[in-house]
Design a protein that fits this description.
The protein has 151 residues and is an alpha+beta fold. Helix content is 26%, strand content 36%. It contains five helices and eight strands, in the order ααββαααββββββ. The chain has a three-stranded antiparallel sheet, with no helix packed on it.
């Protein structure tokens, strides 16, 4: 592939920068929030997968839950046993924050969902569904959970 060089353009940016331009475009692909899945047959794109990423994470950071690396062997061991273990299930409940509204009404972000007092939180671990009820929410990040059921 050839790129035409215009004489007045080379005076402004220099011939070196102009020759480096095609290399730079290939080295730094456009940042995209989607990745393509390729099936391996002539590089055909099967579909796109949206990458869920918090914009405030540092560059290159991926949390353990999105990686899938942290729960690999523990999840398999729990699935095979089928025992009810509230402590292991509680590790899957992530309280990301607490916020308030006028009138001392508090809300909590639990596993990415906004919850208030009286609502339930459910997690599935090893084929068993664990459910807690939110008994109380208080600042800065205190959420009181009560066990409801494990089926």
């Amino acid at each position: 592939m050839t790129y035409p060089i215009k004489p007045n353009l080379t005076k402004k940016i220099g011939i070196t920068a102009l020759l480096m331009l095609p290399i730079g475009l290939k080295a730094f692909p456009a940042a995209n929030s989607q990745t393509n899945q390729v099936d391996g047959i002539d590089g055909a794109v099967v579909g796109t997968v949206a990458v869920q990423r918090d914009p405030f994470w540092p560059v290159g950071y991926t949390p353990e839950r999105l990686d899938g690396k942290g729960s690999g062997e523990q999840g398999k061991a729990l699935e095979s046993s089928g025992k009810i273990d509230w402590n292991k299930a509680m590790k899957q409940v992530a309280i990301q924050g607490v916020s308030s509204r006028a009138g001392n009404e508090f809300f909590a972000v639990v596993n990415g969902q906004i919850k208030s007092t009286g609502e339930t939180v459910s997690v599935q671990v090893g084929g068993v569904s664990y459910t807690w009820m939110i008994d109380g929410i208080s600042p800065p990040s205190s959420v009181k959970l009560r066990r409801v059921s494990a089926r």
